[in-house]
Amino acid sequence: MIEQQAVPEAMRWSTENCTISRTMEILGDKWTFHVLREVFVGVRRFEEMRARAEIPRQVLTDRLTGLIERGLLRREPYRVPGQRERYEYRLTQAGLDLYPVLVALVQWGDEHLPLEAGPPLVPEHRGDCGEKVTVVLRCAAGHEPTPRQVALHPGPGAQPRV
Amino acid sequence: MIEQQAVPEAMRWSTENCTISRTMEILGDKWTFHVLREVFVGVRRFEEMRARAEIPRQVLTDRLTGLIERGLLRREPYRVPGQRERYEYRLTQAGLDLYPVLVALVQWGDEHLPLEAGPPLVPEHRGDCGEKVTVVLRCAAGHEPTPRQVALHPGPGAQPRV
User: Fold this and answer.
1) Which residues of B touch A122 (CB under 8 A)?
2) Is B105 part of any domain?
3) pLDDT surpassing 90 at residue A87
4) Which of A52, A85, A111 sits opposite B11 (nearest CB)?
5) What's A81's domain CATH number?
6) Strand pairing partners for A123?
7) How far is CA A144 from the centre of its chain?
């Protein structure tokens, strides 16, 4: 039983401009992650995404529009012979830079929500190497701290709470 | 203009048991990330979280309950003198293991949604080191591929689409 009441240091700082909040405002909800996953595994066309990920049509339209507005996806025209022009959705550099987020989610899920048959989706180093890719925490001095050895501290953009 | 219609390899595989989906079902929405952030920065009490993160009371109750049920948080009793027993919320090992996900989100946000004043929240190596922590993509052979050099492939748990 804890008896003293220590006020955490973090209570001095505002969450108003928090990077996690701002990032999650953009990434939004689980559907966004489903859509991003499709593009990351190379499924780039509306009907294919809808069929494979079983995303309702309106949700998919909405999330694709949002991801384009936010600069994570771009559209590339294509045409199936005899049909009208359509678009493929491709990752921009900002979208591709979400790879560590996706790999970290996959890694956590495979560890804490494992399937008996093993992981369904494995990030691999392309080309000749082909080895499994993971994310690693590393500090600027080259150490690789465990989660318990990492702390989140206020940086130069931190604003005091009023 | 792309003219041929190649069916992506991923269309052969089901997303039914996808690790990203299963993980996002647990993490859920942006509010869950707000709550996790609070605990990660050391804000562990209901009233403090509510006040600092400006989370509506019912949403906070709901997300805390969910995170406990899913094994990411645990409750620890405390008592402020003269008041009833209350609970602090602390990360379990499974919760702590989300650190790479949080650091990856912070890193992406600081790069792609930068604040003029600099990052508000900086992951640091605790103790004597104190250097900034980032996440790095690394393969089992020790290479550090860029996002473009990583690909998501079906693993042993992948199920064919029917």
Assistant:
1) 152-155
2) yes
3) yes
4) A52
5) 1.10.10.10
6) B152
7) 22
In angstroms, the CA A121 to CA A43 distance is 14
Residue by residue, DSSP assigns A121-140 as EEEEETTTT--BEEEEEEET
Looking up tokens 């509306």 gives A46
User: Considering the domain boundaries, does residue A162 fall inside one?
Assistant: no
Token pair, residue A106, equals 């996959």
Q: Which uninterrupted H or E stretch holds A17?
A: none
ipTM confidence: 0.93
Q: How far is B46 from chain A (nearest CA, A)?
A: 13
With 0-12 / 13-18 / 19 or more C-beta atoms within 10 angstroms meaning exposed / middle / buried, residue A28 is middle
Residue closest to A137 by CA, chosen among A148, A123, A122: A148
Residue A41 in any domain: the answer is: yes
Q: What's the pLDDT band for B25 if we cut at 50, 70, 90? A: confident
pLDDT digits 0-9 by tens, B104-132: 999 999 999 999 999 999 999 999 999 99
Residue with tokens 């999650």, as numbered in its chain:
A24
The angle that helices B19-27 and A30-40 make with each other, rounded to 10 degrees, is: 160
How far is the C-alpha of B104 from the C-alpha of A147, rounded, in Å? 13
Taking CB atoms and an 8 Å limit, are A155 and B109 in contact across chains?
A: no
